[in-house]
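User: Can you recover a sequence for this backbone? Please restate the input before giving your answer.

Assistant: Of course. Working from this structure:
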């Protein structure tokens, strides 16, 4: 049985991850763009999708409504309770199974899934060997021709965020950013949950290489938010449907641009088995 970081578990028990994708424009952009990218690679329903590290179930519930057979796994007990509550609110399209589990040791049979979502585990597995374990488990459970969509946080996310939040005058913030840039290992030495928790921050090319090392055929590495999350003006654009569509279209146009990838808070790497 693998150990999971108490710091990370404590962070998610104290914060409302269930509200992160809906509370503000940054989260809404992340949700909309991740949904868009996922739908490009999923086979038609009722294919089997494993949402590993699926949190409180926003993606699992969305996919279940579309007719997919979705199995959600997460290591945080609060998330499991929340996912069950949300699933119960759509009784005609429930998540098929919801269980506590670990991305490094999945309880699914080999060749049993059409797609695997790893939208959280990789950035909370600090050691590369553990990330590879999770990726190899995803590879094992996928059928031939199946897809993985794996998320990483950009190596430069804290630097850009702290500039936006005017935090660089704070020596603690400055130390966090400097360590992130040097090592990729993000740590929060404070009690301020706004500084996140233990995480590994990927360079875009690094996320790609880890997928390949785990046996996947790399399909694309894409920026989720692109540079849009950095600008307060986007909050005003997002209110208007036409301007919102323009924001998403512009992000889409540069989503695979190598010089833009690191500016996105989140990046997605897609692999095929």
């Amino acid at each position: 049985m693998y150990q999971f970081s108490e710091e990370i578990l404590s962070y998610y028990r104290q914060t409302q991850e269930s509200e992160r994708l809906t509370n503000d424009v940054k989260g809404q952009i992340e949700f909309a763009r991740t949904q868009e990218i996922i739908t490009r690679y999923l086979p038609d329903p009722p294919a089997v999708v494993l949402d590993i590290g699926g949190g409180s179930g926003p993606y699992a519930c969305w996919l279940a409504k579309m007719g997919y057979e979705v199995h959600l796994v997460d290591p945080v007990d609060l998330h499991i309770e929340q996912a069950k509550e949300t699933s119960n609110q759509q009784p005609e399209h429930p998540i098929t199974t919801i269980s506590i589990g670990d991305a490094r040791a999945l309880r699914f049979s080999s060749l049993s899934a059409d797609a695997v979502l790893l939208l959280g585990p990789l950035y909370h597995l600090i050691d590369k060997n553990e990330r590879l374990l999770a990726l190899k488990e995803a590879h094992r459970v996928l059928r031939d021709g199946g897809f993985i969509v794996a998320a990483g946080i950009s190596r430069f996310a804290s630097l850009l965020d702290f500039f936006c939040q005017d935090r660089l005058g704070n020596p603690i913030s400055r130390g966090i950013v400097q360590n992130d840039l040097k090592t990729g290992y993000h740590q929060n030495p404070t009690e301020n949950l706004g500084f996140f928790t233990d995480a590994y921050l990927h360079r875009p090319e690094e996320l790609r290489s880890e997928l390949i090392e785990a046996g996947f055929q790399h399909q694309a590495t894409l920026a989720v938010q692109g540079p849009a999350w950095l600008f307060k003006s986007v909050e005003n654009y997002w209110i208007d449907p036409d301007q919102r569509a323009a924001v998403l279209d512009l992000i889409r146009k540069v989503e695979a641009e190598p010089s833009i990838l690191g500016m996105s808070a989140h990046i997605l790497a897609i692999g095929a088995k």
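That completes the design. The longest strand covers residues 142-154.
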